[in-house]
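Lab notebook, page 48
Experiment: co-folding of the full assembly
Goal: obtain a model of how the components sit together before planning crosslinking
Operator: M.T.
Materials (sequences as entered):
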Amino acid sequence: MGLKSKLHTLKEKYKGKKMAPAFNALHTFLYLPNDTTHGGTHIKVADDLKRTMNIVILAMIPCLIFGMFNAGYQHYLALGEIEAASGFLGDTFWTLDNFIIGLIKILPLVIVSYGVGLGIEFLFAIIKGHEVEEGYLVTGMLVPLIVPVDLPLWMLAVAVAFGVVLGKEVFGGTGMNILNPALTIRAFLFFAYPTWMSGDKVWVHGAVERANQISEGAALDSISGETILGSYAQNQEIAYSLADMFYGLIPGSVGETSKILIIIGGLFLIFTKIGSWRIIVSTILGALVMGLIFNGVVDQGWIGETSKFYGLMSVPFWQHLIIGSILFGAVYMATDPVTASQTNKGKWIYGFLIGFISILIRVFNPAYPEGVFLAILLMNVFAPTIDHYVVQANVKRRMKRLKAKVA
Amino acid sequence: MALLSKKDSKLILDPLADNNPITIQVLGICSALAITAELNASIVMAISVIFVLGVGNVVISLIRNIIPSKIRIIVQLTVVATLVIIVDQVLKAYAYTLSKELSVFVGLIITNCIIMGRFEAFALGNGVWRSFLDGIGNALGYGVILIIVGFFRELLGSGTLLGIEVLGNPVDKTGLYAFGYENNGFMLLSPMALIVVGIIIWVQRHKNKALIEDH
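Observation: model returned without errors.
Model output:
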């Protein structure tokens, strides 16, 4: 007897019992269900929720694999054991050693994220007596991509539990949440354990350990793994070339460094019509406009070179897109169909404000060099309001037209 | 014979659970968020409110028949303000550091909706003894939530309770910290107080389904 029929008999056996949702979820996740819809089916589409989720995950896999190589690369580079890679296909980057470090550090993050998150999803499905929802499949993959490599696993577990229960389940589960669960998890980590989520030590594997050894008196060189945003915020020299930033050979959260892979993933999402191109384009526009305004301020000489904002304000506006995680946020986070605006006009406003506010926070709040996640969470809250006014404006316009016709 | 009649004991017990001022009536949230980062601040706040509301209810109930109804709010405010100033002065005299920590929030007891609410809703229409019980009951209900929130916020946020190290010492990495545990800084921020209150409301409604409103 194969696994499929075994699962099927188990499913039949538990039908109507408390544990039923768990078996149903396993069965439909692994196989096509035996029973098809009968009766009045009105909408026929090829992609169900699971397939949608899988496409998003597929779009993120390159970022994850790149992140694994990058974790090892940054580690060995900081230790001075390898030369800096030249370009995207540099031969010191795509090495097995790099990948192994990444695998050891990042695979556990993925496993913990999925294990805890899906565990809670199953638990809630059983308590509530409805089917397990697929929403966590994407969240579970996003979470390891937006945290630093060296994040302790128990912190991740606590944050995932918090994010899934209070960010999603209390509102009624997938499709009902106001806030993006992955960003809720990141926000929790950021405010709960700031020493593990920001600063110049957390982005390179081994840097924290090395700092501890030095403080205990070991004669070692310290590892500096400052992100580019961090260096800018302190008006420091940038040690990385623009090409490095674009290819992603820089320290940062696991999956957000490689802009080229994010662009490929974004094109894939747009091509498959899973991600909204309106949101992606308008977010980028918003960021560019804010960057242009800051550049203008610098050009006019309204801000002195000694100002602590000078470094970030004088960054050429288009460079804001390749430093920090604004692109990652625009492609994978802002486009979350549940928490974004639903109307087309609303999507433009929603995306534009995300880009705009991200750069605003990035420049003006040195404590949060990366404002993208805060901007997206903020706009998540406002998305329903934006939709409301867009719909009302449409109603008003049509009422006017109707009146004009009658009169 | 029981100390209190059934009707009277209901006045004390109801606000503790099924008619709690914070979790059911959602009053007095501001101070619950602001001062619960430490357990001792929560306890002092709870005692202060118990005093103000208990005595205030008695005073209002005593003069309820001679207050002109048009200016009753002003009279009520005068009574609360007097009591709050007494509390504030006592704190300043005997617990100066705590009083600094609570800062404006002692003064803001005046605007605590629970107090004016009980004056208006209960003390103006009931006898002295029953008003006293009602005041104590509601203040206790408020205090219990404050203390629960303060307990979790201080324990998880600073690893201490009433200033005593419970989870070891983070500097020496003893106790739980030896396992790589860290304090949750989020717990010390006000939003987490709101979330803890939310969780208490969740648990309470889960236990007593009658509290869940119809949609």
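Interpretation: Strands of chain B lie at 160-161, 164-165.
Next step: discuss with group before ordering constructs.
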